[in-house]
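Re: the 616-residue chain
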Amino acid sequence: MFWRKRSDGTMKIGASYYPELLPQEDWSRDLAAGHKIGLSCLRCGEFAWSRLSPVPGAWHVDWAKRFLDVAAKHGYDVIWCTPTAAPPPYLHDRWPDLQAVGVDGSRPPVGVRRNYCPSHKGYLALAEQVAGRLADDLHKSSAIAGWQVDNELAGDGFTCWCENCRKAFHAWLLDRYQSLDALNEQWQTDIWSQRYTAWEQIPMPFQNISSHAPALRLAYRRFRSEVWRAFYERQANALRRRGDCTVTTNFYDFTWDVPFDLWQWSGGLDAMGMCRYVEDDLYMQFSLAVGRGIAADRPLWVLEQKAGQQGAQNLFPENLSRLKVHLRRCAEAGVSRAIYWHLRQHSAGCEMEHGAVLRHDGKPTRIARAIAAAIAETKIIAAVETAQGVQLVFSFQQHWANAHRPAMPTKWDYRARLEQDWYAGAKDIFGEVAVACPVTEDTPRVLLIPLAQMEEPGLIDKIGRCLQSGGTVVSTVDLCRLDMENGVYRRRPLWILQRWVKVPDLEILHLQDGFAVDGRIGAARFKGTIFWALPEGPAMGHVRAIGRLRWKNMSGPVALDFKIGAGRLVVSLAELDRCGVTALIRAAVPKRDIPASDVPATGRKPARAKHVAGTS
């Protein structure tokens, strides 16, 4: 009942390669060395604009065609990238306002990547044109397996504060709210006399000023996601018009930023592409689980992962066993393409000491040997099947809303808490769980919606469908405290549940750094942190309590347990650690919906002979 196969096929391992930087006579030797190691796909072209068009009006693509012929001869699939992450200097001469503007008014210098304004109309049109020309010239090559738009869109926390973006922000606000009166009402701008009488008065919020209104900061994050989605889709559509092809981009992992609502982006992705430079194993699994959820039934590609040292870090010694772990996690997640950055080390530029599969002179050394061993071992690893009927909700909108709350006594990260406590705790019970957006259409048997402070469209309907079908919903006391503009509802905690049950009065307490409440569910002990809710007023009566919490001279239940129709709603009154989450789920979920005890805690079923790690 509980296990569902993610994918079948064979995961292809590859590396990024930059033929425009190397003599043509080196291409065949480098690709032959990579093929011997076990590589079978390449990612090329993301910084090749100057070779394609060295001067205005020129278009030199013959070198790329020759390279694709060499790649095909050696049996490689190639994912070719549009080069818009690094416009050549002459475009800044053509458009002085193309250069991005920092929050302090500074401008990134010409000659670095991601130094352009994503709202610039001229650049958007030219980027679309370049993508179309690449597709016209290269799509007939037998080596082309797909396309990547740009490179790490908005990575490094990239944000432009220029006048183009400011005007685009105001136009986006007008489209969303229709009138200033509606915006002022929904944002409650009379606080600090912020009521706007002209769209031009609305600032773009500075990231380092936490006293900006939470509604303004949240609106800007939504705008930013939409600006980049339009940037992506113009190029993606140009590529698709040239024929049937797979188009994606390489989203950076969450260590830099979470700039996009990728659930909203998913409809424009033919595959889910991501970079993965993290070393923390749990974080690695969580990011792949999110990627797998976004991909749904489409391929999941890891388009960049670390091969050798990053920059000049960890020169010696280095733990090369991590290479096996990286590929293992990709295979378990059903990744169909896992690509290293990169095949051969650069001999110049800011990343000339960055590690790669091959040394500067093209020789395979210890990194290549370790990768070859990792590839050989990965061939026998099967894709892990997710627990059917179990979903954990992770929302980018919730992440943004919590990130833009006014300063708390303790630093709090929605994404980190989902990963370290709820995802990890659920894995301890179910093996592997699907990470979903709040509006998936199916009705799970077990729905985990922790820390969902904002009432997103469809969230409560999804809870209702699960309960009506006899399922179990586990949430937390801050469920729907905030409206869609990041304002706190003027209602008692858990008011949203009153359509189904009578909710007792609760007082939510926030704990300072270093404080925690001791808790117990059955034999399991744990510590709850950051917040907990203390029931007040009359006895809870009809509400069943789960476990106990104690702090100083106060005590209360760990969770409230409501019977609603054929289903069950359990609401935690404290933010739980991993142990507490596991204990709460075990106490809340019926035994029929808990996997058999012979399912390993790692989430891997007993070894199978058939390899099912990905589909291209």
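The chain has two domains: 11-158+244-378, 386-593.
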